[in-house]
Amino acid sequence: MLKNAFLMLLSLAIAIGGGGASVWYALKIQDGVGAIRIGQWTAFPDIGTPAADPYSKARVAREGVLALGRAEGLSFVAENDAAGDQLKRECSYRIEGGFPTARFWTLYAADQSLGVVETGKPRLAALQSYEVLRQADNSVTISVGHHPMPGNWLLTNGSGRMYFVLTFYDTPIASSTGLSDVSLPRIVKAGCDA
Amino acid sequence: MRNVLAALRRLFHAVLLGLVGAGIVHIVVLLLVPEFSERDAWSRLSMASDLYRMNRLDAEAGGAPVVKSVDPLFYAAACRFDLEEGMVRIKAPGNVPFWSVSVYDRNGHNIYSFNDHTASDGKLDAVVLTPAQMIDVRKDLPEDLQGAIFVEAPIDEGIFVIRSFVPDDSWKPIVSRFLDQSSCELQDF
After folding, report:
1. ipTM of the shown complex
2. Where are the domains of chain B?
3. CA-CA to A30 of 20 to 30 Å: which in A96, B86, B178, B189?
4. With b meaning 16 or more CB within 10 Å and e meaning fewer, what string describes A40-59?
């Protein structure tokens, strides 16, 4: 009798504990269902729409996100560089290449919660397409790091993990049909502060 | 020996049952999170302000941002509305480099969005209403609603968000004023 009760308790504990923990874990990881990957960049075109999968819906509800609409724009997040290493705030990077068609785009360095990195200076850790210098072939090269650099410079600060968030506003790629043949800039590590 | 084997078998059964149960609990919890979340955008906004009140979402207005993850080069404002009380009209005066608007339902799902290229002469003047209210309005369109953008949304409670681009520091006061002067009102009809 006592053994039966123990086994029942064990089943219940596994069911409730395992079920709850697996949901918590699934909502915590950055990756997930419904992601579209282009190079190192990941986007969730369906997030925040009624067509989203249950995991995205739960994440929206839990984090209080108000996702960009299709007519507004589309956000891409990068957490690795081209070599597959995690992005670090103490390293410097080069983001280079062409950008897809959009009215304008913004790029910022973000921390774990995708808020902008605090630089401790008046300069934001953000750039936008109206202020960047372009190459003759319309591509853009952006240097990311602590120290001022010629050309386009995205200031970062501190140490730890970093993410890049690249958002295109008023863009045809947000209406998912165009997403397949979009190419996004590469993220190349240029060096690290010891 | 036989007793030990039987006990192991029952233990194995119990664990298996637990795992199947975990799968069921996983699905149930996942589907219930949106219903019971107290951290969703609607709940956060309702702690910050009343219905039909424009509320800044960026940190510029002081204090921590109410709803997170707006682009640092953007300012944003939101108001909550309830279409059961009537249709709601949102207006914002002035010219800014870019604005975009989204209508969300109670759960924070994006129902409709548009940007300044959609509006006539770039002025933000929109009315959110249910399909039933739309039929009433169509019968006799009031003079001052002629230029407005009508957003038909099959919802009752919802959130209206205006986002506006701040290209550089010199635009900050202009974009701030654009959002602070925006209004979100219950429209009599």
Report:
1. 0.82
2. 1-36, 50-186
3. A96
4. bbbbbbbbbbeebeebbbbb
